[in-house]
Task: inverse folding
């Protein structure tokens, strides 16, 4: 019987992003069966992988975690009940394999005895044929071929992955992610940038109800919300209270920009990061009982001591309770003045949002061009990190057209380039001839019809850029823009 692996687990095993594997599938260099990869095909397609050494994969993962500004996940064991269930399942698999091997051994013993019986009265020709069959069987059973050794190493690594994590597929959207350590289904989904519906995230409201389609889950947190018996019978669970035992399929809605309600909450200031006299970042922490639901690229209204302003979120939805908002210092912006002069750690900021529909098209597999004009880098940064967490783009190119504030997070962009094979960063100095610069940018993309473009800047900058990209072949429906007051 063949051993099939989901594409997401193959990506982990070989240390390659999904877009690389998907390109191999499209080109015919990696065969799949119903979206799964057979073990022999995996060994054939990746003969150079060292299955006994995943240090390089861990190194890249850690670099990516730092580059995304996400907290590096604690390599914690799963919840004890989940771990016991996974080990029991592994034990069942081992027992089944052991029983099958014993059966094969009995069959081989019977076959050997039958060959002996036939040899007694066989002709010389038949005798030699039977002797050749027996020699072949003995030789092959006594030797372990190299491919079997590799298969054993792959299976061993896959079993470790299945103990430490479980693969989750969301229907009908098709989103996939892994639940690592002792995360719940909801925590893991949010950490991977999947915007599932939720409210309190601690088992009181029932907003994170979903239906378990296949697989097994364990309740790891108590919840006060009471499910109806009909819901239980239908497989409904609370995502904030359950963790997967094995690979599961969940039926749940993934929110779009119009599905997320405007929320109001009070957040604590973690820090104020002043990049230069013209630009700063406000880092705030939402309360545990009222996290802000948003998508990459959206905005929030911030207020303190009677002054307020609306600004682009610069962080990824995958960053738990942490929210980063980048704020340029502009004349007449009282909130920005407070940020640069009087706002301190532990101050309380009122947050309202999210607003806007400048979000990723998560159904698009196209390569992406990100175009940031000055402080328009903030929503672009949020989109890039969201795309990284979802692992959906074939490739990503960032063009940052600086203003007087400069490339105030240049090192971060270069870290993305170093960590990711499919990311390219091109900084552009301030210029008085934007037309010439845009002309040079589009000349680098003779096949613009293949791309999605996300741009953020002033209305005038965006209109100028849009005209250049559409003339160069970009499909109008693949232009996404966010006009900022900069």
Result:
């Amino acid at each position: 019987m063949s051993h099939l692996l989901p594409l997401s687990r193959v990506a982990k095993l070989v240390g390659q992003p999904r877009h690389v594997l998907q390109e191999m599938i499209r080109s015919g260099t990696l065969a799949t069966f119903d979206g799964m990869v057979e073990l022999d095909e995996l060994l054939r397609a990746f003969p150079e992988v060292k299955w006994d050494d995943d240090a390089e994969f861990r190194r890249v993962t850690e670099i990516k975690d730092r580059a995304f500004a996400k907290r590096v996940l604690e390599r914690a064991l799963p919840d004890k009940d989940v771990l016991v269930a996974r080990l029991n399942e592994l034990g069942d698999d081992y027992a089944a394999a052991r029983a099958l091997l014993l059966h094969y051994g009995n069959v081989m013993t019977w076959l050997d005895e039958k060959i002996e019986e036939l040899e007694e009265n066989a002709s010389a020709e038949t005798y030699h044929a039977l002797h050749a069959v027996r020699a072949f069987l003995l030789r092959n059973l006594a030797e372990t071929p190299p491919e079997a050794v590799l298969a054993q190493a792959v299976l061993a690594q896959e079993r470790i992955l299945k103990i430490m994590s479980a693969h989750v597929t969301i229907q009908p959207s098709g989103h996939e992610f892994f639940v690592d350590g002792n995360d719940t289904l909801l925590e893991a989904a949010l950490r991977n940038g999947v915007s599932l519906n939720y409210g309190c995230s601690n088992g009181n409201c029932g907003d994170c109800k979903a239906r378990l389609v296949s697989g097994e889950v364990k309740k790891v947190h108590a919840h006060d919300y009471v499910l109806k018996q009909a819901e239980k019978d239908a497989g409904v669970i609370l995502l904030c209270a359950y963790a997967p035992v094995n690979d599961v399929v969940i039926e749940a809605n993934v929110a779009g920009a119009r599905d997320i309600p405007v929320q109001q909450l009070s957040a604590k200031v973690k820090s104020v990061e002043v990049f230069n006299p013209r630009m700063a970042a406000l880092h705030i922490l939402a309360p545990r009982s009222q996290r802000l639901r948003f998508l990459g690229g959206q905005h929030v209204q911030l207020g303190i001591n009677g002054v307020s302003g609306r600004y682009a979120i610069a962080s990824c939805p995958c960053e738990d309770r942490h929210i980063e908002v980048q704020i340029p210092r502009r004349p007449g912006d009282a909130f920005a003045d407070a940020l640069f002069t009087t706002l301190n750690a532990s101050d309380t900021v009122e947050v309202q949002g999210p607003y806007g529909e400048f979000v990723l098209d998560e159904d698009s597999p196209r390569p992406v061009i990100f175009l940031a004009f000055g402080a328009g880098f903030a929503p672009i940064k949020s989109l890039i990190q969201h795309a990284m967490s979802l692992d959906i783009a074939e490739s990503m190119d960032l063009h940052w057209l600086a203003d007087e504030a400069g490339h105030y997070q240049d090192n971060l962009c270069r870290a993305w380039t170093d960590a990711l094979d499919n990311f390219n960063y091109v900084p552009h100095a301030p210029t008085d001839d934007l037309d010439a610069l845009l002309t040079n940018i589009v000349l680098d993309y003779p096949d613009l019809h293949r791309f999605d473009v996300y741009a953020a800047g002033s209305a005038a900058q965006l209109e100028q850029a849009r005209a250049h990209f559409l003339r160069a072949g970009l499909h109008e429906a693949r232009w996404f823009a966010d006009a900022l007051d900069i």
Summary: Residues 263-355 form a domain with the Elongation Factor Tu (Ef-tu); domain 3 fold (CATH 2.40.30.10).
